[in-house]
Specification:
Structural class: mainly alpha
Radius of gyration: 23 Å
Strand content: under 5%
Number of strands: 0
């Protein structure tokens, strides 16, 4: 398909119909699951690059305040979930 063009509704319907009922088998699901287990979402070398890029950058007071509020909300949600589980 060329860049900038799109499929017609008829073509989209045909493509949709051709893929109906093509669920992966249990064996395929198991293989995918095994492949993804213990695999980091971001590669270590990429994480290192990201870390270096952030080093030495100062966050503004507004950003720090927003991060603080968000962290407190996450903490409160976790606390509520723990109390509900007990």
């Amino acid at each position: 398909m060329r860049k900038g063009s799109s499929h017609t509704e008829e073509t989209r319907a045909k493509m949709s119909a051709s893929h109906k009922g093509m669920a992966p088998s249990a064996e395929t699901k198991a293989k995918i699951s095994a492949a993804l287990k213990n695999k980091p979402l971001i590669a270590q070398h990429t994480r290192a690059k990201m870390s270096v890029a952030k080093l030495g950058k100062k966050l503004s007071d507004a950003t720090r305040a927003a991060m603080s509020v968000a962290a407190k909300k996450r903490w409160a949600r976790g606390k509520i979930a723990q109390e509900a589980a007990q």
